[in-house]
Design brief:
This protein is mainly alpha-helical. The chain has helices spanning 2-26, 46-67, 79-110, 125-145, 153-178, 184-188, 191-219, 221-235. The chain is 74% helix and 0% strand. The protein is globular. One of its GO terms (cellular component) is endomembrane system.
Length: 236
C-alpha cells in the first residue's frame, strides 16, 4: 500500500511538473495578441499557479512517503508531514477544486469568457485537461486514499484567503500595467459586477475548503478521532 501511494504521488508530481514545463516552453502566445497580456508571463494565470502548487504538494507527499510518516497519529509527527497536511488543506484541495469547477462552468456558458478559440493553436487539449481536469481527479483521489489532519479552521482559511486576495491584487497590477484583463470575463463586467464576482469567488473557494474538511472527517472519521485523542493525551 505504501508503494502504491508513492507511485501515485510521483505520477502526480511528474505530470503537473511536466505540464508546467510544457506550458512555459512550448505554449508561446505572440506578444501582439489582443486577448492575452504579455506582462506577468505564465504566473498571471491562477491555473498555472495552481499547477505549481500541485507539483509542490505531490512532491511533498512523495517525500513524506519516503522519509516521513503516514500514520494517523505518530508520536513525533515529522515536519514534512505537518507541511504536507497544511498545504493540502489550505491550498492544494480548495484551489484545485475552485479552478476546475470555475473553468468548466464558464467554459460551458461561453468558452470565449475563459479560453478563447483563438488560443487553441497554442494550448493543446491534453494540456488543458492536465491543468483543469486532472487537478480535480488527482486531488480527490488523494483525499480518499491518504489521511491528513486539518489545521484550525481559522488558520487554514486565513492562508487560503490571503493567497486569493494576493492573486486578485496581482490581476489588477497586470490590468494597470497593460490595460488588459487576464480573463476575458472580467472585461465583460463593470466595476460593481467585478467586485461582486471577486466576493462570490472568495466565498466559493472557502466553501471548497469546508467541503474538503468535511469529506476528510467523514472518510477518515476513525483516524481523526484517534488523532484528537492522542493530542489530548499529549496535552496532559
Amino acid at each position: 500500500l505504501k508503494m502504491h501511494k508513492l507511485l501515485f504521488h510521483l505520477l502526480g508530481a511528474i505530470q503537473f511538473a511536466y505540464g508546467c514545463y510544457y506550458d512555459c516552453t512550448y505554449v508561446i502566445i505572440p506578444s501582439t495578441s489582443s486577448v492575452v497580456p504579455s506582462f506577468g508571463g505564465k504566473l498571471k494565470y491562477l491555473t498555472f499557479i495552481n499547477a505549481m502548487i500541485q507539483t509542490a504538494y505531490f512532491t511533498l507527499a512523495a517525500l513524506n512517503d519516503l522519509i516521513g510518516s503516514n500514520e494517523p497519529s505518530p508520536r513525533d509527527k515529522p515536519l514534512i508531514r505537518r507541511v504536507k497536511d497544511l498545504v493540502f488543506s489550505s491550498l492544494a484541495f480548495p484551489v484545485s477544486i475552485f479552478v476546475g469547477v470555475t473553468f468548466w462552468a464558464l467554459y460551458a456558458v461561453d468558452r470565449e469568457l475563459i479560453l478563447p478559440r483563438s488560443l487553441d493553436d497554442y494550448f493543446p487539449t491534453w494540456l488543458n485537461h492536465v491543468m483543469h481536469t486532472n487537478i480535480v481527479l488527482f486531488i480527490l483521489i488523494e483525499l480518499a486514499t491518504s489521511f491528513r489532519m486539518y489545521p484550525l479552521r481559522k488558520f487554514g482559511l486565513s492562508i487560503l484567503c490571503t493567497f486569493m486576495l494576493c492573486y486578485v491584487v496581482w490581476v489588477h497590477v497586470i490590468w494597470f500595467r497593460t490595460g488588459m484583463w487576464v480573463y476575458p470575463v472580467l472585461k465583460v463586467f463593470n466595476w460593481p459586477l467585478r467586485i461582486a464576482f471577486y466576493g462570490f469567488s472568495l466565498s466559493f473557494v472557502c466553501t471548497f475548503y469546508s467541503l474538503g474538511e468535511r469529506l476528510n472527517a467523514a472518510i477518515w472519521s476513525k483516524e481523526v478521532e484517534e488523532t484528537v485523542k492522542s493530542g489530548k493525551k499529549k496535552a496532559k
